[in-house]
C-alpha cells in the first residue's frame, strides 16, 4: 500500500480482507510506533494506512470520530488509544506475551505509562518540538519527565524494563527516546550519563532489538520532520519523494 499520507478529501483505502489487521496512523507519530513495535515483536502481519494529522481524511473522522491516532481496524472491530490497542494485541496474539501476567505487575506498568504520557508525550515533548529545542524550560521539563523511568530501571537492576528482554513498558516509552538523537543534532540536547546512567545503557540495548530496527526512522528524517512541524508545514511524507 502507498505510504503517502491521506488527508482531506482523499479516497477511502480499499476494503480490508477478512481477518486482516489494519493500523491507521502516521510514520512520525510516536503513538503509532508503539503499536508497530508490539506487532513487530510478535511477528504479526498488518497493513498501515498513513494519514495527515492536521488535515485528517473525512472518512477517518467518520470511522474514528475522536480523530485520535493510531486507530486499529479488524473485521468489524475498531479501537483507538495506543495503550489500549497494544493490550488488545497482546491478548489476541499470544506469542511472545509482553504485558506482565501478574495483575499487580501489570497494574504498575499501566500506572507508569499513565504518569509518563501526560508529562512527556503530551506535554514536554511537543513543546520541545515546537521550539525546535531553543526553549530551555521545555528542555528541562522533558528531562525531568524522564527521571521516574531512570529510577524504575535502576531499581529493577535488569537490562530492560521487562527483565532480560524488552516487554511492554520498553516498547511503550521507546518511540520518544528514538527521537532524542534528532534533538541532539538540532540543539545539542543531551540525556547526560551522570543524570541518566541506566537509561543511556538501556537505549544502547534497545537499538539492538529487532522490533526497534524494523520500526525506527533514520535520525535525519526525524530532524526534517521536527523542523517542518515547528514551521507548521506538512511533515508526513518526508523521505518518500
Q: Would you tell me the structural class of the helices and strands?
A: alpha+beta
Order of helices and strands: EHEHEEHHHHHHHH
Q: Tell me, briefly, the overall form.
A: globular
Order of strands across the biggest sheet? 2-1-3-4
Number of helices: 10
Q: How large is the radius of gyration? A: 18 Å
First and last CA, distance = 16 Å
Uncertain spans: none
What percent of residues adopt helix (DSSP H or I)? 40-55%
* Largest sheet report: 4 strands, mixed
List keywords for this structure.
241 residues, alpha+beta, 10 helices
Provide the fold topology.
Blueprint (H helix, E strand, L loop, with lengths): L20 E5 L4 H13 L4 E4 L7 H6 L7 E4 L2 E4 L1 H11 L10 H28 L5 H21 L11 H11 L1 H8 L9 H11 L2 H6 L3 H12 L11
Parallel strand pairs: 1-2
Antiparallel strand pairs: 1-3, 3-4
Helix pairs in contact: 1-3, 1-6, 4-5, 4-6, 7-10
Amino acid at each position: 500500500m502507498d505510504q503517502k499520507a491521506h488527508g482531506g478529501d482523499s479516497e477511502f483505502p480499499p476494503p480490508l480482507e477478512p481477518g486482516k489487521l489494519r493500523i491507521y496512523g502516521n510514520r512520525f507519530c510516536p503513538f503509532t510506533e508503539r503499536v508497530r513495535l508490539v506487532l513487530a515483536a510478535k511477528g504479526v502481519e498488518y497493513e498501515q494506512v498513513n494519514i495527515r494529522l492536521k488535515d485528517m481524511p473525512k472518512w477517518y473522522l467518520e470511522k474514528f470520530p475522536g480523530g485520535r491516532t493510531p486507530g486499529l481496524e479488524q473485521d468489524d472491530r475498531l479501537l483507538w488509544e495506543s495503550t489500549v490497542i497494544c493490550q488488545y494485541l497482546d491478548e489476541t496474539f499470544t506469542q511472545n506475551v509482553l504485558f506482565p501476567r501478574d495483575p499487580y505487575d501489570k497494574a504498575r506498568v499501566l500506572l507508569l505509562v499513565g504518569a509518563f504520557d501526560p508529562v512527556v508525550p503530551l506535554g514536554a515533548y511537543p513543546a520541545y518540538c515546537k521550539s525546535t529545542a531553543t526553549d530551555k524550560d521545555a528542555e528541562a521539563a522533558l528531562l525531568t519527565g524522564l527521571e521516574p523511568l531512570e529510577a524504575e530501571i535502576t531499581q529493577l537492576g535488569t537490562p530492560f524494563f521487562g527483565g532480560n528482554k524488552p516487554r511492554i513498558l520498553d516498547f511503550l516509552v521507546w518511540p520518544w527516546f528514538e527521537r532524542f538523537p534528532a534533538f541532539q543534532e538540532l540543539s545539542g540536547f543531551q540525556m547526560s550519563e551522570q543524570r541518566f546512567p541506566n537509561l543511556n545503557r538501556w537505549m544502547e540495548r534497545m537499538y539492538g532489538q529487532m522490533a526497534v530496527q524494523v520500526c525506527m526512522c533514520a535520525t535525519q528524517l526525524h530532524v526534517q520532520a521536527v523542523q517542518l512541524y515547528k514551521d507548521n508545514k506538512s511533515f508526513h511524507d518526508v523521505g518518500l519523494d
